[in-house]
Amino acid sequence: MTTAPLLTCENLNVSFGSHHVLKDASIDIRPGETVGLVGESGSGKTTIGRAILGIGPVTSGRIVFDGQDITGVAPRNRTGDAARIQAVFQDPYSSLNPAMTVEETLIEPMVYRGLYAPVDAKARVRDLLDQVALPADAAHRYPREFSGGQRQRVAIARALALSPRLVICDEPVSALDLSTQARVMDLFIDIQNRTGVAYLFVSHDLAVVRHISHRVAVMRSGEIVEFGNCDQVTSNPKHPYTQRLLLAAPVADPARQALRREAFERLSAAS
Amino acid sequence: MLMFLAKRLATGVILLASIATITFFLVFSGTQRVVVNILGQSATDADIAALTRKLGIDRPLLTQYADWLSHALRGDLGNAWTMDGSVTDILGRTLPVTLSIVAFAIAVMAILAALLGIAAATRSGWIDRLIQVLSVIGFSMPNFWLGLLLIIFFALTLQVLPATGFVSPASSVTGWLASITLPAGALILSGVASAAQQVRGAVLDALRQDYVRTLWARGVSPRSIFFRHALRNAVPAALTVLSVQFIALLSGSAVIERIFAIPGLGALTVQSAVVGDIPVLMGIVTSMVAVVVVVNLFIDLLNALANPKVRLS
Amino acid sequence: MSDLVNNDTGRRAPARQTLIRAVLRNPLGAAASFVILCVVLIAILAPLIAPQDPTAVQIFKVNAPWDAEFLLGGDGSGRDILSRLIFGARNTLLGALIVVGVSSTLGVAAGLIGGYYAGRADTVFSWVADGLMALPAIIVLLAFHQVLGSSIYYSMAVFGILLTPGFFRLTRNLVASVRNELYIDAARVSGLSDSRIIFRHVLKTVRPPLVIQVSIVAGIAIIIQAGLEFLGLGDSQVPTWGGMLQDGFANLYVAPEAVWWPGLAISLTVASFVLLANAVRDTLQQNQPTGRKLAVDPSPVSQDGDAADSADIILSVRDLAVGYPDGDRWREVVRDVSFNVRRGEILGIVGESGSGKSQTAFAILGLLASGGTVLRGSIRFEGRDVTKLDFAARHALRGSQIAYVPQEPMSNLDPSFKIGFQLMEPMRTVLGLSKAQARARALELLGHVGLPNPLRTFNAYPHQISGGMAQRVLIAGAISCNPKLLIADEPTTALDVTVQAEILKLLRNLQSELGMSVIMVTHNFGVVADLCDRVAVMQQGRIVEINAAGTLFATPEQDYTKMLLSCVLEDSPVRAYVAPTAGGGN
């Protein structure tokens, strides 16, 4: 618990016109840690991720990454370690350019950033594909030739290309089928164990977040209502909203779900 | 809704003002050449200077513009240089002729395009193919060539319709119809198939919406699904098609009126363009844009009425 | 399963080469390309191939019919029509080139900027484009004739500006839609500059539609140029197709044949450009289903094996196969599917994407997407095979007997009508209620599905209510005509989890109250566990296992079911945080 945080967000506020979508949100992520961010649509969870990435606005507050203030700095102006924040997005169908092969997609940031010469970058593509368990011949294919799960693996490889220290994962498995989802989650965990990368894992699904996170933050209408250790937040939440969220998600067992449903209805009646 | 319309009206007025202004400075920057044109090559420098002074174009351009604008706002567009009478009078004579043809043409086109488009959307097959072929043919045949062919066939060979001339609807409605059938036909034939294709696209698009499937599942009658729900939601796209076609017809009127010797605004444009009657050309551009603005405003109004999101805002 | 294996390998050729090749493989596309190529060659080689000097006058050839010397005859001034036609191709193509160059350069540049940056630049550009579109082109060009002088090319450059909005709008809309694609965000996150993103990522994807627009604009340019020349605004020294038409027009009563040749030349060239555009468009849309009709093998007569307990069984599906046309054969998305639904029972159909669960549901409703066909098997509703019913009899079942709750609440309400009207319409058609009766029942239903203010919702348009409310409205609509069977297709997938819990509760209450049967199509095992009496698990168009919910979850029989259930993340062990020893990174 004494490790210095890799990223801190202090009192972030974001407004779109008169819409206050993020209200004094503060979170921190330690090196090699996964922080889960749970909330329903419109809760502002994606807005935090985009602010950290530098592709969304910040009205007030501070984002500090490894000692550097990166608030409102666009990715192209980030240098040094600040450039080592990458992203994996939700929709595997729209997150890859359909007109570019996998190799072109992976090489572009490496060469453009000047991290690798084109020849070395090509060699690294093989290594990256290997890391995400895709065959080497995937390099010369187009996104349309892959399934949703495979595309998400390509997107993960792209994020890894710049040797990130933090990856913002915005609902990376919610568009995937159940069986694919489990395997992609395991890949995320495996990569973290191997490379020590930290994740901000944004999702609407408490069970998914519990599976991968060390700590969990719960958001509702732009506010973080609860932030604590994973086990406490996901199995013994303190805030009534988190309790509601937990009990609302049905479990795959008719007997236990009947009990959970009753508990949810009791909670709804009480509030 | 009122806000929306007020906004569209303001946009239209600004559009009209800016186009009139830009046009003014462009056409009045070339007046020197026009004066030589009007007087002929044998004109002396003194003749040119005299006419220049007489027409008031020896003054600075800005002064001329201020003068034109202050008169235009009162409905006075100045006097023609090469014809008798004021520009307003000339436009008052020619504009109704052109509008009567274009209005008739657009009405026929709207009906044909709607019928063909809906038929193609509901019974794909030969009618769909036919419209595809016709739209390629219509697009590639210039309307002035088509006009010539119509004259050769209907006026010269069959001799059933007059080749040239215009009869005012005030003097004889049947005469008017006979005189504008060929011009209107030449105007719309090129666009009607492509308009029908766009109507077809709009209807098919409306029929593909999720809520149409839900209406089927609810047991709503097929007639209501088609006529009430699908057509209603296809209206905005179809109206936009009409607005674009209307402008195309105005543009085409210049050539068509020339072929059929119709004394309308289009023929007037050609005539004044060749001799360089700049006040008349100014008046033509201003009045045509004004007509387009009014028509578009009307279409905006119809669209607003069809769309509850706009209607209730 | 197939996450790591993909049979669909090959096709490695770059997209652009295949586009050109595919266009040439299309007969019309090849013919159009050939004609355009010919016109270009004729224009370049005009001095070599023209039999006569196009400006030489032979006085006794005035309006002459064709002969060995003047193959297409002479024009009104006694010049060779064929030679003038050949030379006319030159200025026609040059004019088209100017128009395309001006309009595409300006329009695409403005479209890229407006679409990518949005904001003020976009507003200004859009406004200018609207203004230009309001101008009748020929009238404006005529008005500027004196300023522009007698060279047609200045006029064509101005016409290029007038056609800019087409390119601008096309590019802008394409860019605006691409801009929201996540791969643009990903490129920004990678640190790419805006100009690099625009040229590498945006322009690349919007290129094919621009090819279509170039072809169309070239066609328009040729027509307008000929029109201006026809009106006598061109240079009278240069032979042009439009000028030849004018000459033909002047001699229309003497030699009407003369108007044919230039007109044909214009039409043929323009038609080639249009057909080329169509060929490119068709190539881009190639993946869409073809309109060809495939024959359906007559299904074997189904035996009535279940006749004994048919009183209790409301729906009996036997050996169902559903297919979509795919080239010359059927692609079966559902096959050998058999199951029963008892009265008052909730059956869950669960599976991953592509398992055929929704297609099975739509087959029962008779609302398969265009091309979808029941190839084999029977669907018996209360003993009657509905696949054998005619359209009207089938439609009569919908709403009154079998109802449907869709997945996306917002897109399933007609945006143009008030919710009240949309609820009343089926009741008036199906149940024959009067307007007042239907209104009373609609209000009652809206209250019944838990909407706090029924009258307000009744008078609202769909855009005025939330997604959760819209789903309640759709459920009210589904039960409004007292159906015996309700088919719900992923009814909670688009909703937040707390709203989902409320909708599930509503469905459960309505079911027990009305005693109807329900088919619940979903991918979520939690939803199945919450609601269903029995469960069918589907995989790749087949049912792999069907059982009572309690049994299926406790003791799944099939490996596939076991695998799916093992993938459900629930109460997984929590990970312990260990700070990395090194400085991180790899």
Automatic annotation (TrEMBL), chain A:
Ranges of residues in domain ABC transporter: 7-246
Highest taxon of the lineage: Bacteria
GO MF: ATP binding
SMART domains assigned: AAA
Keyword presence, Nucleotide-binding: yes
Membrane-protein topology: Peripheral membrane protein
Keyword annotations from UniProtKB, A to Z: ATP-binding, Nucleotide-binding, Transport
Cell compartment(s), UniProt: Cell inner membrane
Pfam families found in the cross-reference section: ABC_tran, oligo_HPY
N-terminal signal peptide: none
Family as reported in the entry's similarity comment: Belongs to the ABC transporter superfamily.
Stated name of the protein: ATP-binding cassette domain-containing protein
Source organism (scientific name): Rhizobium oryzicola
Automatic annotation (TrEMBL), chain B:
Annotated keywords: Cell membrane, Membrane, Transmembrane, Transmembrane helix, Transport
Pfam families given in the database record: BPD_transp_1, BPD_transp_1_N
CDD domains: TM_PBP2
Main location, first listed in the record: membrane
Protein name: ABC transporter permease
Transmembrane segments: 101-121, 133-156, 176-196, 237-260, 280-302
Membrane topology annotation: Multi-pass membrane protein
InterPro entries cross-referenced by the UniProt entry: BPD_transp_1_N, MetI-like, MetI-like_sf
Family per similarity comment: Belongs to the binding-protein-dependent transport system permease family.
Domain ABC transmembrane type-1: residue ranges: 95-303
Cell location: Cell membrane
From TrEMBL, chain C:
Domain ABC transmembrane type-1: 89-281
Residues in ABC transporter domain copies: 315-565
Topology class, membrane: Peripheral membrane protein; Multi-pass membrane protein
Database matches in SUPFAM superfamilies: MetI-like, P-loop containing nucleoside triphosphate hydrolases
InterPro entries found in the cross-reference section: AAA+_ATPase, ABC_Ni/Peptide_Import, ABC_transporter-like_ATP-bd, ABC_transporter-like_CS, MetI-like, MetI-like_sf, OppC_N, P-loop_NTPase
Protein origin, superkingdom: Bacteria
Compartments reported by the entry: Cell inner membrane; Cell membrane
PROSITE patterns, sorted: ABC_TM1, ABC_TRANSPORTER_1, ABC_TRANSPORTER_2
Residue stretches spanning the membrane: 28-50, 93-117, 124-145, 151-170, 210-228, 259-280
Alphabetized UniProt keyword annotations: ATP-binding, Cell membrane, Membrane, Nucleotide-binding, Transmembrane, Transmembrane helix, Transport
SMART domains assigned: AAA (SM00382)
Similarity comment: Belongs to the binding-protein-dependent transport system permease family. Belongs to the ABC transporter superfamily.
PANTHER family (UniProt xref): DIPEPTIDE TRANSPORT ATP-BINDING PROTEIN DPPD, OLIGOPEPTIDE TRANSPORT ATP-BINDING PROTEIN APPD
Protein name (database record): Dipeptide/oligopeptide/nickel ABC transporter permease/ATP-binding protein
Native source species: Rhizobium oryzicola
Highest classification ranks of the organism: Bacteria, Pseudomonadati, Pseudomonadota, Alphaproteobacteria, Hyphomicrobiales
